[in-house]
Amino acid sequence: MRLFKLLFIIFLVCFASSSYPADRANFVFTVIKYGGGGDWYNGLSGVRHFLKQLNKQTNIKASLEERVLELTNPELFYSPFIYINGHGNIKLAPKEVLILRNYLEHGGFLFINDDYGLDEFIRREMKRVFPDEDFVEIPFDHPIYHNFHDFPNGLPKIHEHHGGPPHGYGIYHEGRLAVFYDYNTDIADGWETEEVHHDPPQKREAAIRMGINIVLYALTH
Questions:
Q1: Which stretches within the chain are classed as H helix?
Q2: Cα dihedral 122, 124, 130, 134 sign
């Protein structure tokens, strides 16, 4: 039995209950604070804007404030969804590598957003977490692209960091997608309000919708 199965049952009860108190949340967006000098804290205003939209567009009662945790914090295992973002270096301590692997093997879900410049470092660190696994391209028919909003061509392109299309990569554990990594698109930048990056409304809405799909997938698989 997965570690988070009981938590998910609780989530379903809360999701279905119309009398659930409005001032309580059944989902908290957990941001991972990591070492190595990278800006793990980048884009938190976008996360908060996304959470408002998550509440508006779904029946999930999400906290409007993110939770920031280091991987060594015991509260990690009460978080079925965790998030890593940034531009630069990420370096996990040996203990953090073991904890992250344990978390993912027992039902946790990690969403990684490459904010341009994270790629070489996150690939190195995830290889330490899963030495026998590589990132694989997620096919366009995967449920993460269709479980709430429909993305028949996979990830939407938000920012042109590199030429070419965006890529959704993943790492599976026992047939379950445990890690989802967006590359060459920067979904999280699209969560910001218009004045931050001046993205057009359709780009920002696509980023919000894809984020909703990711969160719902994490909570249901």
A1: 5-16, 44-57, 94-105, 119-129, 194-197, 201-220
A2: positive
Half-sphere exposure at residue 37, Cβ-oriented, CA atoms within 13 angstroms: 4
| Residue 133: closest CA among 111, 108, 101 | 101
* Predicted TM-score of the model (pTM): 0.89
- How far apart CA 155 and CA 146 sit, in angstroms, is 11
Whether 126 contacts 90, CB under 8 Å: no
- The domains found in the chain, sorted by start residue, are 26-220 (3.40.50.12140)
Tell me 42's DSSP state: T
Looking at the predicted structure, is the pLDDT value of residue 155 above 80?
yes
Q: Buried b vs exposed e over 21-50: b needs ≥16 C-beta within 10 Å?
A: eeeebbbbbbbbebeeebebebbbebbbbb
For 180-216, the pLDDT digits (tens) are 999 999 999 999 998 888 889 999 999 999 999 999 9
φ/ψ (deg, to 5) at 194 = -55, -40
